[in-house]
Amino acid sequence: MKFPRRTLEDPAINLTPLIDVVFLLLIFFMVTTTFTRETRLAVDLPEAEAGQAEQVNQPLEVLVSENGSFSINNERLMDNDSASLRLALLNAAEQDTSRAVLLIADAEATHQSVVTAMDAIGQAGFSQLSIATRQPVDSDTEAASGDAL
């Protein structure tokens, strides 16, 4: 019995597993990649040469103390609710809701009391609200003043 002579064939490489791995990697990177789309508006602000205009009316000062009590122009209110603050604001402004209101809150005041004051100002009809802040104290200045005490 004679066996047929085998010829050497080129070995075949199966590419199917390689393509599967490449597709899996592609899917993995597509799913795990985060695309950030930054939404910024380019605004070209106008320039002005004039200084700040003087206000005819002084703004109403609403103080929120550490314990949540309210004062208008350094006059303390008897009740600390929204309705009394709204009425006191209208009385202090003489029903002129076009006046500016400056909200000055203690750093230790609760967030709720500040929100209550802002809500009462808005419900009274005032549209010009400013919130007073202060510049942070440098640690060098604070350390120097602490050493002097």
TrEMBL record:
Name the GO cellular-component terms.
plasma membrane
Question: Which GO BP annotation is one of this protein's?
Answer: protein transport
The membrane spanning regions, by residue number, are 12-31
- Cite the InterPro entries for this sequence: ExbD (IPR003400)
Q: How does it sit in the membrane?
A: Single-pass membrane protein; Single-pass type II membrane protein
Q: Which GO terms describe its molecular function?
A: transmembrane transporter activity
Main localization of the protein? membrane
Keyword rRNA-binding present in the record's keywords: the answer is no
Q: Does the keyword Transmembrane apply?
A: yes
Q: Which keywords, in A-to-Z order, does the entry hold? A: Cell membrane, Membrane, Protein transport, Transmembrane, Transmembrane helix, Transport
Indicate where this protein resides in the cell.
Cell membrane
Q: Which residues form a coiled coil?
A: none
- Give the UniProt family note: Belongs to the ExbD/TolR family.
- What is the name of this protein? Biopolymer transporter ExbD
What organism is listed for this UniProt entry?
Pseudohongiella nitratireducens
